[in-house]
Amino acid sequence: MTPPAGSHDSTAFKQVHVPFAHRVIFGHRLLEPTGSGETTPAARALREALTLGEDRGARGLVAFVDDGFAAAWPAFESDMRQWVALHLPGVEVREISLVTGGESCKNDMAVVERVIQSVERHHIDRRSAVMAVGGGAVLDAVGLGAALAHRGVRHIRVATTVLSQDDAAMGVKTGVNRFGKKNFVGAFYPPDAVLCDLAHTQTLSLRLRRAGLSEAVKIFALRDPKWFATMEATANALRDGEPSVMEPVIVQSGLLHLDHIVRGGDPFERLAARPLDFGHWSAHRLESLSSWTVPHGEAVAIGIALDCRYARLAGLMPEAASERVIGLLRALGLPTSHALLNDADSVLSSLDEFREHLGGELTITLLRGIGDAVDVHSIDATLVRQAIESLQR
Length: 393
What we know:
single chain; 15 helices; globular
């Protein structure tokens, strides 16, 4: 007997929820041996990340370390091996190798391929982990390799720069650059643990410490007027890299980024609005136009200044508020313009890339005031040119 036509047709719709735990630790000397087996917050976080409450099965660890950080902190490898032996019995460190730090490590798939090969060579399974140690670029590239191998192995970030600690390490994204476009290839892959050793930020040049503060200016301008005012009041000490002043700013910025990602309702960026990309649409273009020689933090500072001056010209933002943001960036020793902005057509063309990245509709977050964000869906090219010209004076 032949069943009636269509009798096996069916439709199913099921909500799939993918929970993830974001373990973030800020502190000092997090991976240095203490001389005792006392459990530390960092040890608890890594133990949870590696075991997920289970103790069965051998666990391995491979680490990829930013070469700039390794040169500035030469004891890191031996300290980490001793620390793991002390605090994580049963975890075997199978490889620690150096990768070139900075944006250049994201300009091809070489680092990603090295991670994948290491996972295969050292039999890193889903009870083991890949650790990335360095700035945001290294975390991005190594993280993408961890996301791809075995369709995802556990993934630990040790953020060593101001920018990675106050922003990049908090995210759930990985990626590398292709076709001259920032983060064109990547994946959403939450880390299993994030360790931010505030002492590591002192290995940076003063220029890069300052550059990392642009992301703190961004999040405070969006979300926290009191902390924005704190940065204004302490701008001289921040510009000079004073640790006692910088460290609370780094921690508060990182926690605000984390809060937005976890509680903002859109960790995997399915929606059009992306407030944390304030100042970034032009920043990403400036980075590529400079052949990645303009550091991301400085490009973001310039992008924030451009967006604030544009918002003022568009009648969205009062002059006093706009100039407060630009004034703080300058007080921190950050640039607010660049000669490459004079190629306004190239800068404006990034709006099309941004629209494509968002999924079709352009949504740019601007400010109406400190702590008062608004999304707009069109940008006036004439006003952008005027804003560029005014910043170049």
